[in-house]
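Researcher: For the annotation table, I need structure tokens for beta-glucosidase. Please keep the output clean. Sequence:
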Amino acid sequence: MENYTMEGRTYRYYGQEPPLYPFGYGLSYTTFRYRDLVLMPPVLPICANLSVSVVLENTGQRDGEEVVQLYLRWEQPSVPVPHWQLVAFQRVAVPAGRDTKLSLRVLAEQRAVWAQGWRLEPGSFTLFAGGQQPEQQTRVPSEVLSAQFSVTGAARPLREC
């Protein structure tokens, strides 16, 4: 096998056809609300990591657990990449009527693209935070927040960071 791209071989690269049961699909006995998504720093150097915080609130009548998921989207990549990629997740227990602030990190290596070797590229990115994939069309209510950040500097091989 010489063609290692996953284009057309996995749902992450399919066109407009969504998967029947995307990652994170499921039901809960309570409801959650996401708010206050913050990315620090909003402009970062090519080899830097991104700090993410988001508040998760249990708006239902029962205690519950939520799997908070972070997805990354490259806005103008130089090579084929997934529509979005899961870069972090965390299962969180939240009592009914309470909220909790989560802190997560997106490592520089998670922004790397394959171009005859792993490399980091500057550009604009969108980060999604929620209980499901972005743009998921299901009957399960869940919010997905988004925020943009940018990466500056010259493209470089990942091993040089």
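Researcher: And a one-line annotation?
Model: The chain is about 0% helix and 45% strand.
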